[in-house]
Specification:
- The chain has about 190 residues and is an alpha/beta fold.
- The protein has two domains: about 1-75, no CATH class; about 80-190, 2-Layer Sandwich (Zincin-like), CATH 3.30.2010.
- It is about 50% helix and about 15% strand.
- The chain is built from six helices and seven strands.
- Helix 3 packs across helix 4 (about 140-150) and helix 4 crosses helix 5.
Length: about 190
Amino acid sequence: MMYQIGNIPVQIVRSRRKTISLEIKKDCRVVLRVPNRMPKRDIVRFLNEKQSWLEENYAKMVQRNKVRMAAKAKYHLSDSKIHELAEQAVEVVPKRVAHYAARMGVTYGRITIRHQRTRWGSCSSNGNLNFNCLLMLAPPEVLDYVVVHELCHRKYMNHSKQFWAEVAKVMPDYKKCERWLKEEGSLLIG
């Protein structure tokens, strides 16, 4: 079922849930999830109450999508470009991992390079490391930060105070890199 609030189409999905959930997806689709038996008038009332929030955040998401598309165009992220970045990462990332692992006194398993849509890196409980090939578009210190972050998971498989203290030992200015990933990197990923 679809409903229009202002000029924003809202897809209404009924299910066995007990609560209402309003979500603006990355592709700017708006989904309202409601309990099966919720009357239409209650749905309309809820949407009217949330109209200003929805309009404001929908506009932000539309703008963010425009910026994201411009960033993808700027970096020419075609399939062949992504393949090229992956090949480059296969050469560069293992060297950075070996460098920092030795410096930090940790071991690791297999290194995998992927084009991930939601993560820059990950570390499995076995010590296998995954890295996003799009890191090749980041400044070198950002790549190093992601490597250090994942290697710190070899000591702490969480994001505790001890984990962040370990990151700071190796990269005292890591927050600059986090900021780049959040602001610039988020335009590339997703």
